[in-house]
Every structure is written in C-alpha cells, then in structure tokens.
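Propose amino acids for all 524 sites.
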C-alpha cells in the first residue's frame, strides 16, 4: 500500500487549532448558512451555524427546520447581528441548489469552477465574504484545470487561517501539498543548475548550497574518521598495534596529499546511492586521482574498518544537529528556535529560500526559472503552515534527508501549549513524524505528551515491526525516564486499519460538546 503524502494531507484533512478552540468566529460581511432548530417565546430561536448552536433574538419571521442564508453584520451591544438574506433553496437529495444559491448571492456566474468552489465551501461550512469569493475565483481563473482541486483545498485552508486570498499565498499552499518529494525536487534543480553555462556568482552560490545538502553524509563521515584518528583519547579500547598505527597516521595526515588520500579511501569504500555522488566530493580533493600510494595496505584496511563502523553508528546529538542545520539552511527557524531557545546564530547562514529568490532573478531559462519558483513557493508554504494561536502554536516543517544509501523527506508536525519564552511546553504537546525508510517504507509516529506522560503510536505495514518494538519498549521507557518522561504505551498498527481515507498525518482536533446558553448570542 502507498499512503498518500503526509504533507498533502495537511491541507486536505486538517482541522486547525483555532477552529478547535473557537466554536464559531464570525466577521462582518461574511455569508453563512444557518438552520433554525427551535423557536422560543419572546421572539428567540435556537440557530445552528456550522457545528455551533446559538440563541438568536428575532426581528424577522423564520420557520423551524428551515435553512437560511445570513450576512454577518457589525457587533452590537446585545450580540452579533445577522441579516437574513433568503431561505435556502435546498433539494433534499442534492446540495446543487444550495450551491447555486451561494454563487448567485455573490453575483457570480454559475460556471463549473464557481460551482465547484461553492460546493467545497458549503461542505466545510466555511463563512466567506464576497471579496474572498471574488478573489478565489480570480485565482482559479489563472489555474490549470488539472490543478483546480488542490487549489480549492489551498483556498479553503487560507480562509480557515484568515490568510489573504492572493496568487502568491495560494500557489505557496498548493506547492506545500505536492506529491513530489522535496529531495527529488532538489535533485532535479541541481541537475538543471549544473547545465547552466557561464553562471553568475549568485547561481554558483545556490548550486554549492544545494550540493552541500546532498553531500552532508559523506562529508560528515570524513570529518568523524579524521577526528577519530587525531584524537588519542578515543583510542583506549584499541590494541597497542592499532594505537601505534593511528599515531603514525596522525603524523602523516599533516601532509595534505596524505589527508586527501585518506579521504579518497573512505569515499571509495562507501556504498552510496545515486543521490549522493562520490565523484563530486572526490573532485574537491586536489590531485587525489594522480596521487602515488602513500598508505600501507594495513593502514588502508584499518581506515576502512573505522569508516565502516562509523557508518553504522550515529548518536542522537548528531541526528539533532543534522536536522537543525538542515532546517536552518532551508530558512525554517521555528523548529531550531524551539530546540536551541536563547542561542545565538553566529554563522548567520543565508537560507536556501533567500538564495533561490536572488538567483531566480538572473535566470533566463523558463524551465529552470519555474523549478526555482516552485521550490521558493514550497518553502513559503512551509512557513504558512506554521501557526501561532496565542497560548498554543503549531510548527510544521519538511526536511530533505540524504543518507549514504538512500534519501527521504522527514515531515514533522509539532503542536502544543506555549511557554512564556515562546517555546512549546515539552510537558504538554503532540508530535507527528512521517518519513519513508528503505526497509520499513512509509512510517508515521504519533507522540502524545500530557503532563510528561507519553504515549507513542507507530503506523507501518512491516510485519515484523511490532515484535521488534515490543523487545525495545523497556529500553525506551528507561531512556525516557532519564529525561523525566513516563512512557505508558507503544502501539504498532498497519495503515490498512487506520481511517479509510488513509490520512498519515492528522492535525490535533478537539471534540466539541453540546453548549448551553443563557441570554442572546445573535440578533436576526
């Protein structure tokens, strides 16, 4: 089974935190559909607007169990005022008439695209103004027919989050829900950039930054091996013969030619995938190809042994450092600031988004320019999906991960209560991870934390994963206990048993109970 892309599902299926907290948020001039549930004495009625039930003071005649179109007026001392426009012409077997009704209320033509937009707005029960509807229609007019469904989903999300309905914002949200992996998008852009002749310094800088993202696993391994050779404190568990060999190597490494040969040995050892090109790293080793053999066979074998061991071991600090470095380079500082709150950015790395914007102005090739614009829009979409809702906030990011043997996008969604310093409270939050692994394939991890009590749910189709997780659960509990977390359960389930719509990532939702009212909420 191939679950739909998690990032795409954010826009298709999300219920935002703001919606969860606020049962109803009405703004002046919005058009909203309401149903009269019950009439009370003294010209009062129980009205349902979307998922909310409100008591209204009536100044016009309406009937029970009927649907009406209302326009939201300005706030009054007695409550919000609604102007009843007309009764909804509603076919019990279809919402087609109600859809046409809404289009006509906005004085728009009942075209196929306008009807489709109105239908989706009604389905989501979204209040909308005439200006928003007109702006949405204008965006759709400049959209390819194949892209209209995802464009409408982006428009819905923009309305929910009170974003302006503009070409730039909607295109960014559309790119944020693309099914193309971010790693593939970067690979294609690198291929196109390397074909440009007589590139400018800005384009060259962009190309180098993109290649650096891909080469990180190789360069990181080289750095670790060289550091190991030059640090005697790390040699204590080795034999005397091995320690002497490393001491001799450390002296030899002072020669640049020997250093490059050691790096070359390591690179040639790697069984890398096509995504991480060994040749591009080797080209940076001055004169490596023409070097005479400066290492003994034993020294070469020993270096290969060290490198092999290091490729199979990585610490949590290395993982975190890698993720935060990548996220900063992409221009997403939210996650970085959450983990490194209060730290200073001494490197002041120019983000990939900034480099793309600058370099795109110097590109004349339409295909390359479009590739760069799509990546800029995607990165902008990432920032739009990161929301601050007063006491709570939602961080959403996607990071391209390049390993020695594969590549994958890591999608992270982090939601929770906000502390005084702006960081998410680690005692009350929820974190989703979604990525594709070479052996486990599509994997989703849902971590829920309430008062430092943690539950973990893993969704994956691998038949042996559940047994493996059970064997490691006690060790995980112990590790989390050292961090002052209490793990109560770890569950593993296949994607087939989740929601039929295959939603790998769902935003946090809060159930809304029945509300009791005293007084008046609305004036109609």
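Proposal:
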């Amino acid at each position: 089974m191939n679950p739909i892309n998690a990032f795409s599902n954010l826009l298709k299926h999300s219920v935002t935190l703001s919606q969860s907290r606020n049962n109803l948020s009405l703004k002046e001039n919005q058009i909203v559909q309401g149903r009269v549930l019950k009439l009370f004495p003294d010209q009062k009625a129980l009205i349902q607007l979307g998922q909310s039930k409100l008591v209204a003071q009536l100044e016009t005649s309406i009937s029970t169990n009927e649907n009406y179109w209302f326009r939201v007026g300005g706030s009054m001392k007695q409550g919000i005022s609604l102007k009843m426009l007309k009764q909804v012409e509603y076919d019990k077997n279809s919402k087609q008439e109600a859809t046409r009704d809404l289009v006509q209320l906005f004085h728009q033509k009942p075209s196929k695209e306008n009807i489709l937009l109105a239908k989706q707005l009604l389905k989501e029960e979204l209040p909308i103004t005439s200006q928003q509807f007109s702006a949405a229609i204008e965006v759709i007019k400049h959209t390819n027919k194949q892209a209209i469904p995802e464009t409408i989903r982006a428009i819905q999300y923009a309305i929910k989050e009170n974003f302006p309905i503009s070409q730039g914002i909607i295109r960014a949200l559309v790119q944020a829900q693309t099914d193309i992996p971010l790693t593939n998008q970067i690979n294609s852009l690198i291929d196109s950039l390397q074909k440009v002749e007589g590139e400018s310094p800005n384009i060259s800088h962009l190309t180098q930054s993109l290649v650096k993202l891909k080469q990180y696993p190789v360069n990181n391994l080289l750095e670790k091996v060289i550091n190991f050779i030059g640090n005697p404190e790390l040699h204590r568990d080795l034999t005397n013969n091995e320690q002497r060999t490393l001491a001799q190597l450390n002296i030899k490494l002072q020669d640049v030619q020997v250093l490059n040969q050691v790096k070359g040995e390591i690179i040639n050892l790697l069984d890398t995938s096509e995504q991480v090109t060994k040749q591009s790293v080797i080209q940076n080793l001055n004169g490596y190809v023409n070097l005479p053999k400066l290492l003994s066979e034993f020294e070469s074998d020993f270096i290969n042994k060290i490198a092999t061991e290091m490729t199979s071991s990585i610490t949590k600090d290395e993982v975190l450092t890698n993720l935060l470095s990548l996220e900063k380079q992409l221009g997403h500082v939210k996650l970085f600031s959450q983990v490194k709150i209060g730290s200073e950015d001494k490197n002041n790395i120019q983000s990939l988004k900034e480099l793309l914007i600058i370099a795109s102005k110097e590109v004349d090739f339409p295909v390359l320019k479009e590739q760069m614009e799509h990546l800029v829009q995607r990165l902008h979409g990432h920032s739009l999906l990161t929301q601050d809702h007063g006491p709570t906030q939602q961080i959403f990011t996607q990071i391209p991960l390049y390993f020695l043997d594969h590549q994958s996008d890591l999608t992270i969604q982090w939601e929770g209560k906000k502390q005084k310093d702006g960081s998410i409270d680690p005692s009350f939050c929820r974190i989703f991870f979604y990525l594709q692994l070479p052996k486990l394939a599509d994997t989703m991890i849902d971590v829920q934390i309430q008062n430092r009590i943690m539950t973990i749910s893993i969704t994956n189709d691998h038949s042996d994963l559940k047994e493996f997780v059970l064997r490691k659960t006690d060790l995980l509990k112990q590790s989390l206990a050292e961090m002052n977390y209490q793990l109560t359960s770890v569950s593993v389930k296949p994607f087939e048993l989740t929601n039929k719509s295959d939603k790998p990532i769902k935003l946090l939702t809060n159930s809304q109970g029945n509300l009791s009212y005293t007084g008046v909420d609305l004036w109609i």
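DSSP finds 18 helices and 14 strands in the chain. Residues 1-22, 272-276, 335-349, 498-519 have pLDDT under 50 and may be disordered.
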